[in-house]
Design goal:
The protein is an alpha+beta fold. The chain has 4 helices and 6 strands. Strand 3 and strand 4 form a beta hairpin. The two termini are about 25 Å apart.
Length: about 160
């Protein structure tokens, strides 16, 4: 469960077999990794009590045709290292993650983003991810049913090193 109140998070592993494989985002589907990733990775949305809630985003909107998703990014948000979290940082981070994932797998639903085919063939940016002021827009060529679930997952969250 995601906490919205801040505070300190401590983990104790009592069985070496349950130690996280790594904290690499591509490994966050392992139960041990996911438990930690969900607590330390910033995602655009959170899911609580059956509802999608803004997390890094302060608000979000879905167009009437379900093809454009707009996320207004919270003001004055910084990482623990003091890095200002901006729409550009989130865009670049997501494109980097998607590029890594494409090396060994398909990327469901994100492949519906406009320009994703060119991106998968070595273009560095995805045409369908745009910055508009303090917002991040995702423009899809086909309605990505279920994409809000992906904006909650640590795989696609903000990973800063």
């Amino acid at each position: 469960m995601t906490s919205f109140n801040g505070g300190k998070l401590n983990y104790v592993f009592t069985n070496k077999a349950n130690l996280p494989k790594s904290l690499d985002p591509k490994d966050s589907d392992f139960a041990e990794n996911s438990l930690i990733q969900e607590q330390v990775v910033g995602t655009l949305l959170a899911y609580k009590d059956g509802n999608y809630l803004p997390y890094i985003a302060s608000e979000f909107n879905v167009s009437s045709d379900g093809k454009i998703y707009t996320f207004k990014i919270r003001d004055n948000l910084k990482s623990e290292a003091g890095i200002k979290i901006t729409p550009l940082l989130i865009k670049q981070n997501l494109e980097k993650l998607l590029k890594q994932y494409l090396e060994y797998s398909e990327v469901p639903l994100f492949n519906y983003l406009k320009g994703f085919d060119l991106f998968s063939k070595n273009l560095n940016e995805i045409e369908g991810i745009k910055i508009k002021g303090d917002s991040l827009l995702f423009e899809f060529s086909k309605k990505p049913v279920g994409i809000l679930n992906y904006f909650v997952m640590p795989y696609y969250g903000l990973h800063l090193k």
